[in-house]
Amino acid sequence: MTVHSNLFRFRTSDGERLHGLHFKPSTPEDNFNLAVLMVHGVALNFYTGPLPVFAQGLAERGHHVFTINTRGHDWVSRGGDGTAFCGATYENLEDCLLDLDGALSWLGTQGFQRYVLMGHSLGCIKSLLYQGTRKRVDVVGVISCSAPRQYYSARASDQPKFPQRMAKAEKLLGEGRGEEFLWAETGDSQGLFSARTYVSKYGSHEKNDIRPHAARLGCPLLTLAGGMEHPNFPAYARELAESAGPNRGMYRLIEGANHSYHRREGQVIEIISNWLKGIDGHDS
Fold first, then answer.
1. In this structure, CATH architecture of domain 3-149+209-282
2. Could you tell me where the beta strands, DSSP code E, fall in 187-233?
3. Under the phi-then-psi rule, with left for phi > 0, alpha for psi from -120 to 50, and beta for the rest, what region is 146?
4. In b/e form, how buried is each residue of 229-243, taking b as 16+ CB within 10 angstroms?
5. Where are the domains of the chain?
6. How far apart, in whole angstroms, are the C-alpha atoms of residue 240 and residue 85?
7. Counting runs of H as helices and runs of E as strands, what totals does the chain give?
8. Which of 108, 132, 103 is nearest to 218 (CA)?
9. pLDDT tens, the chain, 284 aa long
10. Dihedral angle over CA of 98, 103, 104, 106, nearest 10
C-alpha cells in the first residue's frame, strides 16, 4: 500500500512549537477516525529511533499514524519563542502533559476523534503518565514499547552511584542552581541533564513509576519488550500489563529484539496492527 507523509506543526498551551510527521495510508482501515500518536524516547525525535519504521509499517496496513516531537526532543534545542532552550537536558517530566494535550488538540482539528498513544522507552513513561493523569475517554488504547524502570528506588538498585548523583542534583536545586548541568547514565550511555530535570525525571518523589497510572488508564494497554534487553525491561512490561488488569492488559515478549527492535520491526508491526483491529471491541 502506498503511504504519503506530511509534515505538521502544533502549539502547546504554554507556547512551545512542536513538529511531527503524518504517515497517511492511501486506503485507510474502517476505523478512519482513529489516530495512533507515537512518542519518542529520551533525546530522540519524530524521525529517529524505531517509531518511524513502525509508523510506516502500520500505515501500510491502513492506520493513520503520527510521530511527534515532545519538547524533550534531542539533547538541546531551541524552545519557546526561539530564545530559550529545551530538549532532554532541560525538560520536566510533567511537561509531557502539555505536549500531548497540544498534539491531540491538533489531531482533533484534522477530524480524528479517537486516539491510541504509543511510546518507546521514555515515550512509554510519558504516554502512560498522560493517560493515567488525564483519563481521556477519547484515548482508546495505549501501547508501551520497552518502558524503562526509571523511578528512584529502581535506579538506586541498578546504578550504585545513582543516590550520590541524585543528592548532588537535589542540593543544586535547593541552592537555586537547578539549571547547572550534570552527566548521568541513560541506558548504555551518558546524558547531559540540568539538575532540575534530573530531579524531575528520576527523583525520590517516584512520580515516574507508571504502574499506578497503568491501573487507571480506562482503556486497553499493550506492552512489549525485547528478549535481548536487560531483564528489567520484560519484567516491567509484564508488571504494567498486570497493573492494567486481565481484561485490559496484554504483554508480548519479542524474542531476539534489542531496545530498538532492530531486525524485529516486522514482528512488532504485525502484533500492534492486530491489536489495533481489536480496539473497537474494547471501547468502553
1. 3-Layer(aba) Sandwich (3.40)
2. 189-194, 221-226
3. left
4. bbeebbebbbbbbeb
5. 3-149+209-282, 152-206
6. 33
7. 9, 12
8. 132
9. 789 999 999 999 999 999 999 999 987 666 679 999 999 999 999 999 999 999 999 999 999 999 999 999 999 998 877 778 999 999 999 999 999 999 999 999 999 999 999 999 999 999 999 999 999 999 999 999 999 999 999 999 989 999 999 999 999 999 999 999 999 988 778 999 999 999 999 999 998 899 999 999 999 999 999 999 999 999 999 999 999 999 999 999 999 999 999 999 999 999 999 999 988 654 44
10. 120
- Packing angle of the helix pair 195-202, 162-174 (nearest 10 deg): 120
pTM of the model: 0.95
Distance set, CA 42 to CA 8, 49, 167, 241 (Å):
21, 10, 22, 22
Identify the residue whose cell numbers are 476523534. Answer: 113
251-279: string of b/e by CB count within 10 Å (b at 16+)? bbbbeebbbbbeebbebbbebbbebbeeb
**Sole residue written with cell 480496539:** 279
